[in-house]
Amino acid sequence: MRRIVACLALVLAAPLGAQAQSGPPHAWLFGTWTGGLYPAPARPTAAQCLAHPTVIFTQDVVLRATLMDVIYLQREIETALTTAGSTEIRFVAAAPVGNGLLGVAAGPGAPGFGCESPDVLHVQRHGENEIIFPGCADFPNPLVRCPSP
């Protein structure tokens, strides 16, 4: 009986080889970022940055600002895969916005980031607090993480 209890204790105490990670793979991106649409300030203050963040990453959605609208565009995350220095985020497929006149489709679904696909975003780390979206025409400049207030 003692052997069974000892073996059971060892098995339960040993770390699992394929143990689940503590958070989502894109957790390093969580928070607000400025720049991208325009050159980011070299050392933004929390107040400057949080007054108008360009991109906001959360566990389930990515919100982005545009130059022509005051409302943030929201994309729901389907999957995220992180490798050394980069993350690929796949969004839930963009559905058409709605029917136009006489049932004709009104246009494309939710906009992306100006990348090769509106439903995929590649993020590359360029330093501890700087990222880029390679190949995304809407974000030609690096983004800088907003500091905590």
Automatic annotation (TrEMBL):
Residues 1-20 form the signal peptide. Keywords: Signal. The keyword Signal applies. This is Uncharacterized protein. It comes from Rhodovastum atsumiense.
